[in-house]
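Students often ask why inverse folding is considered easier than folding. One informal answer: many sequences map to the same fold, so there is more than one right answer. In these notes we will look at a single instance of the problem. The structure comes first.
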């Protein structure tokens, strides 16, 4: 029994494969500041590029975004600026 306001140890089980993939996708979305729709659109565009691997093409498209280029050049301290 625990005192009021305390609720025992927090035991989270291991994430499933799906859970891990979802978590990584959400981290990527948050990092680049994309909505789900923007993310999905870029992913579909990456799949339509003939050369290269789908995942690599997707990362190339993400890195080519103007907000990211400005951030990488050091002209902004965050991607949101």
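Output (designed amino acids):
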């Amino acid at each position: 029994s625990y005192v009021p306001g305390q609720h025992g140890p927090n035991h989270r089980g291991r994430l499933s494969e799906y859970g891990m993939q979802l978590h990584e996708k959400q981290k990527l979305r948050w990092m680049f500041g994309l909505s789900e729709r923007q993310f999905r659109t870029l992913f579909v565009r990456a799949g339509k590029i003939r050369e290269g691997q789908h995942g690599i093409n997707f990362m190339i498209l993400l890195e080519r975004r103007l907000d990211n280029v400005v951030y990488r050049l050091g002209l902004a301290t965050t991607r949101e600026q």
